[in-house]
Amino acid sequence: MPKNYLNIKGQSRSEYLKNFKRVDDIVAKTKVEDEQNKLASKQAKLIKDEYKAINRAMVAKEKGHMNIFDVFFKRAYELGSVKKQEYRAYQLSKLLDFE
């Protein structure tokens, strides 16, 4: 069972679990990060449900695919499930992370 299963918002269990398949499909289709981002962007544009976008972002983060997380997190922001201040804070943290 996924680690963040108890944090599901706005989706049924079966819909939530599909997010894992979608993220795995993106990674399986290509190992090149730019191509993964393109596939994730294509999927993200089709999402109209703010909960689906944030849940998919969190699944990507849990699986360690931060590039895919970025795409779905931005979509969640666009749909309103992420507040402007949270999105700005995340973007700033990426800019200030010099690892």
Task: List the defining traits of the structure above.
single chain, 99 residues, mainly alpha, 5 helices
Distance between the termini: 31 Å
The proportion of strand residues reads under 5%
Mean pLDDT reading: 89
How do the SSEs run, as a string of H and E? HHHHH
Main β-sheet, in a few words?
Answer: none
- Please state the oligomeric state of the protein chains shown: single chain
Shape: globular
Query: Compute the gyration radius: what is it?
Result: 13 Å
Give start-end ranges of low-pLDDT stretches: none
Strands, count: 0
Task: Give a verbal description of the structure.
The mean pLDDT is 89. Helix 1 crosses helix 3 and helix 2 runs parallel beside helix 4. The chain starts with 12 loop residues before the first helix and ends with a helix. The protein is mainly alpha-helical and 99 residues long. Helix content is 72%, strand content 0%. It is globular and about 30 Å long.
Summarize this structure briefly.
It contains 5 helices and no strands. By secondary structure, the chain is mainly alpha-helical.
